[in-house]
Design brief:
about 10% strand, about 400 residues, 5 strands, alpha+beta, elongated
């Protein structure tokens, strides 16, 4: 009895025979690759079997092959078609033809989610009359955690306090809310702006403040390497200086600017204004200057001299920078009028004082500071009088 014939196994790469009508379509497609419409290729290829056959027989050296494979990969989700595409990619690699768009998409490991990295953010507070302001910087880190830099800067003394630490996102929000509540107004700015303010403060550090800038020294190398520092005030990126250079700084405009709640602290330090105040009191009580006109002329002369002494060129530059920074704060707060008033005042400081008078903004600051000092002195005197009256009225049985 003869051996029973065992049918040969079909090789895995062998494709099933196509119906005659699909064979005709296949030959037509292979003969006219340029005519294949890539936008609706699934309509020209009615079945996954035909798609696999076409991929298998595509000439690897044909310029149309790669585009056809790309289109079919998008049009057919069937595993058999995707498998045929991978085989063709492998053949292309063997011929040293590497096309990134044909590489199979890499599957992400389980439980790993693709997340967007948050961008660094910076916030700055307004400047008070003594040059202090708050700063808050947020620097997201990889793979997790957020570095926070926060503190108080002074444009004359330098970094008063700066703390750098890493926190979770939740803890970062808590620290931010607490800091903003303590400081008050804070506006979002750019990292280059904040870095420029930080670096200026660091370079102005007074002796004895080394401890306060220790944390900044950890951050400083990264800032200098990665953050471009500004060569002029950020406000001029929004409002050109020429737009306010012809504006006239009137007394009413100055009063309005200094009347804003963010400008309430813009006065001269008591220890600096006290000598000027005492000189004016001496003139008012003088027996030599009899007429009121003489006294007023002398007081005006003393005040003008006081402006010149308290605001040399170096100090005027600092006041100008403060006004430019306040203009930006007002801009971020959508207070356009105060933005322009700050810029006009800043521009006026470029002009030298003359025999016609001193700078009107600085003169207004002196007048305001004298009034504040006088009021404070009177309140202290009244308080002392009340204490004396209270003590003298005690009846001892």
């Amino acid at each position: 009895m003869g051996k029973k014939k065992i049918p040969k196994k079909r090789k895995s790469q062998d494709l099933p025979k196509l119906p005659s009508e699909e064979e005709i379509v296949l030959n037509s497609l292979l003969g006219n690759l340029k005519d294949i419409n890539l936008n609706n290729i699934d309509q020209q290829i009615p079945s996954p079997q035909l798609a696999c056959a076409l991929i298998e027989k595509l000439p690897l050296d044909a310029p149309e092959t790669i585009d056809i494979i790309l289109a079919m990969r998008e049009a057919f989700n069937e595993k058999t078609v995707q498998k045929a595409i991978k085989k063709t990619i492998f053949k292309l690699k063997q011929r040293e033809i590497s096309i990134p768009d044909l590489e199979p998409p890499k599957e992400m490991p389980f439980l790993i989610k693709k997340t967007e990295r948050d961008e660094p953010t910076a916030y700055l507070g307004p400047i008070d009359g003594f040059g202090n302001r708050g700063i808050f910087i947020i620097l997201p880190q990889i793979p997790k955690g957020i570095d926070i830099g926060l503190g108080i800067l002074n444009d004359e003394e330098g970094i008063i306090q700066f703390i750098l630490g890493r926190y979770s996102k939740k803890r970062m929000r808590e620290v931010k809310d607490f800091f903003f509540e303590q400081i008050g107004t804070m506006v979002e700015s750019t990292l280059p702006h904040a870095a420029t303010i930080l670096e200026k403060a660091y370079n102005r550090n007074k002796p004895g403040l080394e401890e306060s800038s220790r944390d900044y020294l950890q951050l400083r190398p990264w800032i200098l390497e990665n953050i471009p520092l500004l060569d002029q005030s950020v406000i001029y990126d929004f409002i050109p200086l020429e737009s306010v250079s012809n504006e006239i700084l009137t007394d009413s405009r100055i009063d309005k600017l200094l009347g804003h709640e963010l400008m309430e602290s813009w006065i001269i330090k008591p220890e600096e204004i006290k000598p000027l105040f005492e000189k004016i009191v001496e003139v008012e009580e003088s027996l030599i200057l009899v007429s009121e006109a003489q006294k007023l002329d002398r007081i005006k002369e003393i005040k003008d001299q006081g402006v010149a002494q308290m605001f040399p060129d170096s100090k005027r530059s600092i006041i100008k920078e403060r006004l430019e920074e306040m203009a930006y704060i007002f801009l971020k707060l959508d207070e356009e009028e105060y933005t322009r008033l700050s810029l006009i005042s800043a521009f006026s400081l470029d002009e030298k004082d003359s025999i016609l008078g001193v700078n009107p903004f600085l003169e207004a600051m002196v007048e305001r500071s004298l009034d504040y000092y006088q009021q404070s002195s009177e309140e202290v005197d009244e308080s002392k009088d009340m204490e004396e009256d209270s003590s003298s009225s005690i009846i001892i049985p």
